[in-house]
Amino acid sequence: MSRPQDPHRPFLPFGNPFRMLLPKGSYLGPKLLALLNSFEETLAERLKRLKPRDREDVLSLSWMRSALESLCGIHTDIKTLITALELPVCDWDDKWIDVYLDNSLNLLDICIAFTSEISQLNQGRLFLQCALHNLSGDSNKSVRALSSLDGWRQHISSRNPRLENCFSIMDGLSQTLDLPKIKSSAKGKVLMRAIYAVKVVTVYVCSIFTAAFSGSAKKLMDLQVPDTCLWADAFASLQTFVNTEIRCIYSSGRATVLKELEVVDASVKKLYPIVQNEVNPIEAQMLQNLISDLVKTEGKLSQGLDLLSNVVDNFFKIVLTGRDALLGNLRIGGNASDSVITNKAEGQALR
């Protein structure tokens, strides 16, 4: 993964995580190996399906929704794996639990930041709706329409302060991709390798969202995955394709990078000068055509934002229920560290 100031340099400061996770001489029985291979092969297929068929799909709301849907599936897959491992939470190392609780809390904060950004984009649509309402009436309302279009321009160029917090969280998560050394537990080794996979893909997908919402490719991450992972090639192919296109988009100097938002903004730019000037009979039909185009593009933007918002909410619920289930199992299991972990989690929730 690259550091923010040097996005093209691979970031792997902790070396090969599997040198710690699966040292020489380690052995996984046929059942555990089958569980691990099944998880990693499923992950590889999800990543292959996520790779856009066309460059224009990158940073479209529909593709971003697909990326987050894949992430929801991956987080569900690891819950299934944990159940199949039959590894009671009371047997988890305290370090695993601490890392899980910290990371899950960070993911919840990231979801809140993404929801806030989507909400802000939806608020911007109110300016468009006001403009369209005024343009559908008599020409005396054109001044109000222009004011609304100006409001739209200012709104989409403003930055959401919640994203700044999201950036620091992402930087912190990028430093937790190393893995604790597992000495004797074969099941623990499988669990940690699967958790590593989920963390890498989660951090990467979230970095795409932060790059899309922030207006900068500096937060886009590059990760290296050990070749021993069955999903390494699929991940590398996806990452190379998507990162190359995102950096190309930003290098072109576009004001907006979300595809549906870009189409709406282009419609506004065409409409604005005609509304600004007194419309003659020749331009009247052009005005109506542009208004019609804006209605359609605004509708697609609205639908895309609503669907994306639903998936962000779903991901939030998956992370939250997983976190709650872990805390519940710890309380039931009577682990000696339960009270410490529970108090820590409750303290974080009160931030």
Automatic annotation (TrEMBL):
Q: What is its main location?
A: membrane
List, alphabetically, the InterPro entries matched. Answer: ROH1-like (IPR008511)
Q: Report the superkingdom from the record.
A: Eukaryota
Q: Does the keyword Cytoplasm apply?
A: no
Using the record for this protein, list the coiled-coil segments as residue ranges, or answer none.
none
Keywords, comma-separated and alphabetical: Membrane, Transmembrane, Transmembrane helix
Q: PANTHER family under this entry?
A: BPS1-LIKE PROTEIN (PTHR31509)
Q: What is this protein called?
A: BPS1, chloroplastic-like
Q: Give the species this sequence originates from.
A: Olea europaea subsp. europaea
